[in-house]
């Protein structure tokens, strides 16, 4: 018996009324549970927070961008160090290239805090670990940036006070350095970042530096792939679109400058190099979608259907479940009801011709009458337990109402219905 039969009030004639009520009650409980579960699935999809799927790739990448701030005027020098690939002693075969073309030198103080600003932004063709034939198998392995205070207001009393502040960003995603490069200082001061990610990277690689120190700036590169918000992503049918934002994580180690640089105590040297060629990729992945939810609800529906079939039997082939077979009161009522509805077993068997097995009300029936009764019972049995004839009954009723059936066909159908009612 399916859900439509229950709510239409259809009940098998061979079942006691209390069994029908129990079926309806259990079905309502199952439907209520499935509805509640569906609401939880929809809520999980709406408020789903993507999980992060991490992978690692080997690649070449550019040096980071730097913004340098100081209350004192300063100059910047830049040198790139290339080493031959596969050399047993690369320090004996360096190739140094001036990179001042990538620097933005400070000129005037700006802003309410009155600081000087400089910047380093590498060219597009500057890559770490980029060994090529055209470069005579030399690859960039480190960059040295020197900051030298040349302000007359700076005194030696401030030797151990922070003289510089640096901020580092991945060169492929830097929403701030462009304002320094284009001399748009006041726009930088009034810029409000558009995302929490930008707010995070604006301070995550910020350091204060003191003079007469050598700093080892070591960094690793990471890429964050954000799902672009869209209602289509909730369905999980079409893969979402992503916005890629690379960033860096850094470590800064300091040591005093070598003794030969003591003559210039106002210097800060920064050696920049990556940890390795490995880039970590963190990709957002939706863990809850409506498509997944349909699968979960379908699984829950299958579980409820299996539980219902276990209790009350399947609609076909095995129409009797645990309740009809083993529950004390209901199994006895079902047997009595079934015996009353089908006084003769609906399948022909000569063993049932014995008088002791025949119903007393049918004891005096002739063989032809018993066969007719057996056929009627078989039709009733098939209608209730094997064949769903509601669709055919609906067609017949429409034909009867429209007057499209012949009188003989109508009479035949009425006779069959009368025989079923008499049983």
Quick synopsis:
With 423 residues, the protein is α+β, with helices and mostly antiparallel strands.
Characterization of this structure:
Keywords: Membrane, Transmembrane, Transmembrane helix. It comes from Rhizophagus irregularis. There is one protein chain. Helices cover 34% and strands 26% of the residues. With 423 residues, it is α+β, with helices and mostly antiparallel strands. It folds into two domains: 1-48 and 288-340; 54-285. The strands form two sheets. Strands 1, 3, 4, 7, 10, 11 and 12 form a seven-stranded mixed β-sheet that branches. Helix 2 packs antiparallel against helix 6 (290-312). The longest helix has 30 residues, at 17-46. The chain is rod-shaped and about 130 Å long. The chain starts with a helix and ends with a helix. The model is unreliable at 349-358 and 419-423 (pLDDT under 50).
Share of helical residues: 25-40%
**How do the SSEs run, as a string of H and E?**
HHEEEEEEEEHHHEEEEHHHHHH
Radius of gyration: 43 Å
Mean pLDDT: 76
Distance between the termini: 21 Å
Strand content: 25-35%
Number of strands: 12
Shape: rod-shaped
Strand-pairing-aware structural class: alpha+beta
Low-confidence stretches: 349-358, 419-423
Oligomer state equals single chain
- How many discrete structural domains? 2
Main pleated-sheet profile: 7 strands, mixed
Features:
seven-stranded mixed beta sheet, disordered C terminus, alpha+beta, rod-shaped, 11 helices, single chain, 423 residues, 2 domains, five-stranded antiparallel beta sheet, 34% helix
């Amino acid at each position: 018996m399916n859900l439509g039969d229950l709510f239409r009030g259809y009940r098998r004639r061979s079942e006691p009324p209390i069994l029908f009520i129990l079926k309806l009650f259990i079905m309502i409980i199952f439907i209520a549970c499935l509805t509640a579960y569906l609401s939880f699935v929809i809520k999980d999809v709406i408020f789903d927070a993507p999980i992060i799927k991490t992978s690692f790739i080997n690649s070449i990448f550019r040096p980071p961008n730097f913004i340098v701030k100081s209350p004192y005027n300063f100059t910047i020098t830049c040198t790139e160090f290339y080493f031959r690939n596969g050399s047993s002693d690369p320090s004996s075969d360096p190739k140094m290239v001036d990179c001042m073309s990538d620097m933005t030198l400070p000129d005037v103080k700006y802003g309410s805090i009155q600081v000087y600003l400089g910047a380093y932004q590498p060219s597009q063709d500057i890559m770490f670990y980029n060994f090529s034939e055209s470069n005579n198998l030399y690859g960039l392995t480190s960059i040295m940036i020197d900051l030298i205070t040349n302000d007359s207001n700076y005194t030696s009393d401030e030797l151990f006070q922070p003289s510089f502040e640096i901020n580092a960003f991945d060169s492929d995603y830097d929403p701030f350095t462009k304002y320094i490069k284009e001399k748009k200082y006041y726009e930088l001061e009034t810029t409000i970042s558009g995302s929490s990610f930008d707010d995070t990277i604006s301070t995550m690689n910020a350091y204060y530096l003191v003079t007469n120190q050598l700093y080892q700036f070591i960094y690793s590169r990471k890429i964050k792939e954000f799902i672009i918000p869209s209602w289509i992503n909730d369905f999980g049918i079409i893969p979402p679109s992503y916005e890629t934002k690379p960033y860096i994580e850094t470590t800064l180690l300091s040591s005093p400058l070598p003794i030969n640089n003591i003559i210039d105590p106002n210097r800060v040297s920064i050696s920049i190099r990556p940890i390795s060629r490995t880039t970590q990729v963190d990709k957002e992945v939706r863990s809850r979608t409506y498509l997944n939810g349909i699968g979960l609800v379908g699984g829950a529906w299958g579980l409820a259907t299996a539980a219902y079939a276990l209790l009350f039997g399947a609609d076909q082939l095995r129409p009797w479940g645990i309740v009809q077979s083993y529950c004390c009161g209901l199994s006895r009522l079902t047997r009595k009801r079934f015996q009353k509805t089908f006084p003769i077993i609906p399948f022909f068997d000569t063993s049932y011709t014995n008088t002791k097995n025949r119903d007393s009300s049918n004891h005096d029936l002739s063989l032809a009458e018993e066969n007719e009764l057996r056929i009627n019972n078989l039709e009733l049995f098939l209608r209730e337990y094997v064949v769903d004839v509601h669709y055919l009954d609906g067609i017949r009723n429409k034909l009867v109402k429209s007057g499209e059936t012949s009188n003989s066909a109508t009479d035949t159908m009425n006779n069959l219905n009368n025989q079923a009612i008499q049983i």
